[in-house]
Design brief:
With 246 residues, the chain is an alpha/beta fold. 44% of the residues lie in helices and 16% in strands. It is built from ten helices and eight strands. Strands 1-2-3-4-5-6-7-8 form an eight-stranded parallel beta barrel, surrounded by four helices. Strand 2 (30-34), helix 2 and strand 3 form a beta-alpha-beta unit. Helix 1 runs parallel beside helix 2 (51-63) and helix 9 (188-200) packs parallel to helix 10 (227-245). The longest helix has 19 residues, at 227-245. The chain is globular, with a radius of gyration of 17 Å. The structure holds phosphoenolpyruvate (PEP) and manganese (II) ion.
């Protein structure tokens, strides 16, 4: 199973270096970090912004780890390209908007970068499909992330999996499908069992949040694992699923 892990949000240079350094020790080669955070309400932590691109450059240079950032606007794309971010992703609040997807697609024309597309917030597969089709006009290297859907009334998940919707996308598109247990589950104990769902259901990879000290995280602290915890879960599942394959 391919694993992408990293902080919900870049907070400081030392937070990035510490978390990425630990993840690297555990064999992770791609580090995610949100820089511009689309928070539901203003006046909460909205990400460190442009300065974090400099921190990420350092992470990449010192640790030889690939970096991955969320983009929601053409300006984000331009800044990431300038700062040599390796991989981009589109978040659930952006996939939902065809205007935004069209703009991103135009900004990415001719750019040879891998880009991941999360499912939209609402349980509508055609919005997800449309987002991917728009991007595919410009970009050939696309992968998908299933992070669950917002439903009412709320369930034990932060975002209800609705596994069948991700299966529909997997049937329609031949792109790798990653699972995001962090935003799907929302709390650590459920994140751990959701990781196992990813293995059971044959996902191509995991896209998951980790922080060297989750209790101090400025964003999504309840769903972030320490690198050590993440490593233990991965190791447990790898053993279990290797055994069942033999
Ligand atoms: C994230 O991955 O940091 C994020 C904001 O997730 P989502 O777009 O799934 O809410
Ligand atoms: Mn998050």
């Amino acid at each position: 199973m391919k694993i992408i892990a990293g902080v919900c949000s870049a907070e400081t240079e030392s937070q990035l270096l510490t978390t990425a350094g630990l993840l690297k020790i555990f064999g992770i080669d791609t580090f995610r970090a949100g820089i511009w955070k689309a928070r539901t309400r203003p006046n909460t932590f909205e990400g460190a912004g442009d300065i974090a691109l400099e921190w990420l450059k350092k992470v990449k240079e010192l640790l030889s780890i690939k970096t991955m950032v969320e983009v929601a606007t053409p300006t984000h794309v331009e800044k990431c390209l300038k700062s040599d971010v390796d991989i981009l992703w589109v978040g659930a609040r952006t996939t939902v908007n065809p205007f935004s997807m069209q703009e991103l697609s135009e900004a990415l024309r001719g750019v040879q970068k891998l880009i991941f597309v999360k499912n939209p917030i609402c349980p509508d597969v055609s919005l997800w499909a449309g987002a991917v089709e728009r991007l595919a006009r410009s970009v050939y290297d696309i992968k998908l992330i299933h992070r669950g859907f917002s439903v009412f009334p709320p369930t034990k998940y932060r975002n209800e999996p609705m596994w069948e919707l991700a299966s529909e996308m997997r049937k329609e598109f031949d792109y790798d499908m990653y699972l995001d247990p962090s935003h799907m589950a929302g709390v650590r104990s459920l994140v751990k069992t959701t990781i196992t769902d990813g293995y059971t259901r044959g996902y191509d990879g995991l896209f998951i949040e980790a922080h060297h000290d989750p209790s101090k995280a400025l964003c999504d602290k309840n769903q972030q694992l320490t690198p050590q915890e993440l490593f233990e879960e991965i190791e447990k599942n790898e053993k279990l699923f290797q055994k069942s394959e033999n």
